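[09:14] KT: can someone run the structure on this one? pasting the chain below
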Amino acid sequence: MTLRPGARLGIDVGRARVGVSRCDPSAILAVPVETVARDADGDEDIRRILELAAEHEVIELVVGNPLSLSGTSTASTDDAVAFAERLAAAGAAVRLVDERMSTVSAQQALRSAGKSSRKQRPIIDQAAAVIILQHAIDAERASGTAPGRTISADEGL
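[09:31] RB: done, structure tokens below
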């Protein structure tokens, strides 16, 4: 199957922090980039992510959609979708993908690597963003179609 060429950013939206990952232009491997503090009163978090997108010349932002295990929306789902809509409204190409269990998987991977819970905190969001992005590019490679759904700029308006 074919994969759309181009680098992407993976975004794990949390209440306090946003984990950011990226993949190479061939979309082979996702790696951590940084953790961005959420800005409840402004758009510094959006601005920083857009800067990273420009710096890495990405074709899209892949935002994790944290559905419940049964597939229903939660408060975290609503928050992530609203964040994705803000990114799209700022001009970014945004794709929303299922991210069930990404943070749990990231915690398990970090624990397996010997990182204590206290040492995980600064990097857990980045690790979850890596899992979200890697899953999305692997799914696209396997199916030949882009994963998730596109968020349009006017969706949240």
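[09:33] KT: thanks! The domain at 7-151 is CATH 3.30.420.140 (Nucleotidyltransferase; domain 5).
[09:34] RB: yep, looked fine to me
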